[in-house]
Write a structure and sequence with these properties.
Elements (H helix, E strand, L loop, with lengths): L21 E5 L3 H13 L7 E4 L8 H5 L16 E5 L3 H13 L6 E4 L9 H16 L8
Parallel strand pairs: 1-2, 3-4
Antiparallel strand pairs: 1-3
Length: 146
């Protein structure tokens, strides 16, 4: 597990994040997927492919899942924590997406950006890491989150 002090803030630039331009969506019901589609559409982010992970994808690497065609897994329910893994979008788009998501009043998912290290991980490994990080952050006193 990583020490949460290793987090780095994403700034607000037009610099693209690592990986192919895509969102990997996990743990949303088909209805939740539709709501997320609406969030992406209202965020005004153009040409952002979405791929949806199924429970059967837990032992597959992020790189392999992200290489699938857009809309793969759409409409399939999955039994995993809700998570949104972002790749290849700009830092500005990341902030826009997160702001649009919060404005929609949807439950807070686990958020992640793809990294050269995490792309080799299985989806299960990433979700486990994100869950542990979220728990560690929730135990920090207010104002101490990095």
């Amino acid at each position: 597990m990583n020490d949460t002090s290793a987090f780095s803030r994403v700034t607000r630039t037009s610099q693209a994040l690592y990986g192919p331009r895509k969102l990997l969506i996990c743990g949303f019901t088909p209805e939740g997927q539709t709501l997320l589609d609406d969030v992406v559409a209202t965020s005004t982010i153009r040409d952002l492919p979405l791929t949806y992970a199924a429970t059967s994808d837990l032992e597959i690497s992020l790189a392999d899942i992200l290489s699938r065609p857009e809309h793969t897994g759409r409409g399939e329910a999955s039994r995993m924590p809700p998570a949104i893994i972002m790749a290849g979008i700009t830092e500005n788009e990341l902030h826009l997406l997160m702001s649009s998501y919060r404005s929609a009043g949807l439950p807070n998912p686990l958020w992640a950006t793809l990294t050269p290290t995490s792309e080799a991980w299985t989806l299960r490994q990433l979700l486990k890491e994100l869950t542990a990080e979220k728990e560690a952050l929730s135990k920090q006193p207010s104002g101490k989150k990095s």
